[in-house]
Design goal:
By secondary structure, the protein is an alpha/beta fold. It has 11 helices and 7 strands. A 7-stranded mixed sheet has the order 3-2-1-4-5-7-6.
Length: 254
């Protein structure tokens, strides 16, 4: 993918912010238990930057654990949706490659489904600059588990229909970039699932960058074909989405 294509994908979420907020999966409580364990401190009373916060799906859960969270988000559309849904959470415009924050001002920096949109050669040193001694950088990816047969079949259809289809797994990126900056990283993999309607699943699909970048006239037939295939597989209109959640936590020296 060229730099211009990558930028187009990264900025494609604003127009689909409502679908993103409504249909994207949340996170199990176990994620935040593991985050606290690996970070070596509770989220309560921690100063947290949630970078690439989107509509605030993870941001709200961090705040619910008692953290003081600031959302950092480059997309005006996504930030506007976050403000509508969670007006109590402060939002600043910015990107991980140039954090709009003072040195040593955060206990924890999180990237929920967002680190792959950064340039790690810039975003990791920026995180180290902003973190306090003993602070932690946490990255996680929540992806559908390819072990599910129906999802593997969907991937084949989407890869054939969409030239920019991609499946993000954070493991190779996180290991290479964090170890390359001398950060000791611990990893946890969690499995969980959710039961959703076919319509909700399609709304989730609509919010994915490889679909969101398409003009409406190209997007509609892809979604119609997916709807027909899913209803053929799940006639009652309900399906179970299995997820693999990969969490990486790198702590700075105390």
């Amino acid at each position: 993918m060229t730099d211009l294509q990558l930028q187009a994908h990264a900025m494609s979420f604003g127009p689909v912010a409502e679908q993103y907020d409504a249909a994207r999966p949340s996170y199990p409580a176990e994620l935040f238990d593991e985050l606290e364990r690996l970070a070596g401190r509770p989220l309560r009373d921690a100063d947290v930057l949630d970078v690439g916060a989107g509509t605030g799906i993870a941001t709200r859960l961090l705040a619910a654990r008692g953290a003081r969270v600031i959302a950092v988000e480059p997309s005006a559309g996504m930030a506007a949706r976050l403000h509508v849904v969670s007006p109590q959470i402060p939002v600043v415009k910015g990107v991980g490659d140039a954090l709009p924050c003072h040195d040593r001002s955060a206990d924890l920096i999180t990237y929920a489904q967002a680190f792959h949109w950064t340039d790690p050669a810039r975003s990791v040193p920026e995180a180290v600059r902003v973190l306090r001694p003993g602070g932690a950088l946490a990255l996680w990816w929540n992806v559908k588990d390819r072990a599910a047969g129906w999802f593997a079949e969907q991937e084949q259809r989407l890869a054939a229909a969409l030239p920019s289809y991609h499946y993000y797994s954070g493991s190779p990126l996180a290991h290479a970039e964090l170890s390359g900056h001398g950060l000791a990283t611990q990893t946890v993999r969690l499995h969980w699932e959710r039961r959703v309607t076919v319509d909700s699943h399609l709304d989730d699909l609509t919010s994915r960058s490889y679909v969101a970048v398409l003009p409406a006239e190209q997007r509609a037939p892809v979604l119609a074909a997916e709807r027909a295939a899913l209803l053929a597989a799940f006639p009652d209109g309900l399906l179970t989405e299995p997820y693999l959640l990969e969490l990486f936590v790198a702590r700075t020296p105390a």
